[in-house]
Amino acid sequence: MLILELAFTAAPERLAARPAHREVLARLHEEGRLTAAGPFADDSGAVLLFPLERPELERVMADDPYYRTPGVEVVGIREWRPVVGP
């Protein structure tokens, strides 16, 4: 499982791109390629949990321009091994 962490700024491009990005997230979740996603309470960033290998996550990110939108920064991608949960 991979954790993708994002940081946000107040750039208007990010807010304009967010609805389309959330549609992509909904589709990925329906397909079983996204476990959970959501912003931090202060909207400074977000965390996304993907049950994918790194090459597939790279393809997901390449297909969603949100990750290249001004105001969105990929802080990191880390492998996670949950002890409990999905």
From TrEMBL:
SUPFAM superfamilies: Dimeric alpha+beta barrel. Signal peptide: none annotated. Gene3D superfamilies: Dimeric alpha+beta barrel (3.30.70.1060). It comes from the Bacteria. Residues 11-81 form the YCII-related domain. Belongs to the YciI family. This is YCII-related domain-containing protein.
